[in-house]
C-alpha cells in the first residue's frame, strides 16, 4: 500500500457529476486523440483509472485498455459503465501493482501522480510503467506546473477556482513539497457548502525527467496541452511523453 489517500464510497458516487466538465467533448476529444495515436495497434494501461473518465471512451475508440485503481469504490462506479472482459481493472496501487502482459502505452492523467505523497513512490511509479511497457512503448503524464510564482512571501494559499458552486485553493509546504487542495462545494440539494481536502506531492518537469531516467525511459516530447501547444515558461501544465528504448539500455542512471 502506498501513501495515497483512499477515495471513499461517497466521493466515488459524486465524482462524475462534479467532474462533468472534464468529461465534455471539448476536454476529452484532444485527450483521446493524443492517446489513441500513441497506442497505435497496441494495448494501453491507465494508472489510477478511477471511474473510467478516459479509459472507457478510449476503449470505445478501439484501443484495448486495462486499468489499475486503488479505490474499490471508484472501480465499482467504472464497472457500471463497462464489463470486466472489455476493460479489466486490477485493484492496487500504481507504484507496485502488476498487470499481465506488455503495453504500447501507459498513462496517468489529471495530476494523478501527485496522489503518491513521497518521491520514492513516484520513482517506483515510473519503474512500474517501464515494467509494463514493450520496447518502444510510451509513458504519458498530464501534470500541472506548481503555481509557486503566485505565492509571494508570507502568503500560504493560491486559489485555483472561484465560481458559484465551488471555491478551491491550494496551500503549500515548500519543505516537504506537498500541497493540500481545499474545496468548498455547494450541494444542489440544500445549498449548503461541503468542505473537502486532499494531499498531493507536486513535482517539477525536470524532476520527472530524472525519475524517468532512473526507470530507463527517455523524454520524447513535452507539450502544454493535449492539443500539442508548445510548452513554455508560462504554461500552467504539461503533457510529457517518455519512451522505452527499443534496443540496448537507456542512457542515464541504471535501475
Automatic annotation (TrEMBL):
The keyword Ubl conjugation does not apply. It comes from the Bacteria. GO terms for biological process: methylation. The keyword Transferase applies. Keywords: Methyltransferase, Transferase. GO terms for molecular function: methyltransferase activity. CDD domains: AdoMet_MTases. Residues 45-137 form the Methyltransferase domain. This is Class I SAM-dependent DNA methyltransferase. SUPFAM superfamilies: S-adenosyl-L-methionine-dependent methyltransferases.
Amino acid at each position: 500500500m502506498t501513501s495515497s489517500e483512499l477515495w471513499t464510497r461517497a466521493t466515488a458516487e459524486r465524482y462524475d457529476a462534479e467532474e462533468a466538465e472534464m468529461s465534455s467533448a471539448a476536454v476529452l476529444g484532444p485527450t483521446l486523440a493524443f492517446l489513441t495515436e500513441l497506442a497505435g495497434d497496441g494495448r494501453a494501461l491507465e494508472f489510477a483509472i478511477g471511474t473510467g473518465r478516459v479509459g472507457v471512451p478510449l476503449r470505445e475508440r478501439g484501443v484495448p485498455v486495462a486499468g489499475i485503481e486503488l479505490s474499490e469504490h471508484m472501480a465499482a462506479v467504472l464497472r457500471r459503465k463497462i464489463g470486466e472482459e472489455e476493460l479489466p481493472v486490477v485493484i492496487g496501487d500504481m507504484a507496485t501493482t502488476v498487470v499481465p502482459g506488455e503495453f504500447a502505452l501507459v498513462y496517468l492523467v489529471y495530476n494523478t501522480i501527485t496522489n503518491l505523497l513521497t518521491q520514492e513512490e513516484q520513482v517506483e511509479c515510473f519503474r512500474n510503467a517501464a515494467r509494463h511497457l514493450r520496447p518502444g512503448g510510451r509513458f504519458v503524464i498530464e501534470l500541472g506546473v506548481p503555481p509557486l510564482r503566485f505565492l509571494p512571501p508570507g502568503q500560504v494559499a493560491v486559489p485555483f477556482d472561484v465560481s458559484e458552486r465551488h471555491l478551491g485553493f491550494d496551500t503549500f509546504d515548500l519543505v516537504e513539497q506537498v500541497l493540500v487542495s481545499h474545496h468548498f462545494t455547494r450541494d444542489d440539494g440544500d445549498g449548503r457548502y461541503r468542505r473537502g481536502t486532499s494531499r498531493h506531492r507536486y513535482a517539477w518537469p525536470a524532476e520527472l525527467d530524472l525519475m524517468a531516467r532512473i526507470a530507463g525511459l527517455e523524454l520524447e516530447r513535452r507539450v502544454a496541452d493535449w492539443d500539442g501547444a508548445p510548452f513554455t515558461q508560462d504554461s500552467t501544465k504539461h503533457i510529457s511523453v517518455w519512451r522505452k528504448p527499443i534496443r540496448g539500455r537507456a542512457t542515464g542512471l541504471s535501475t
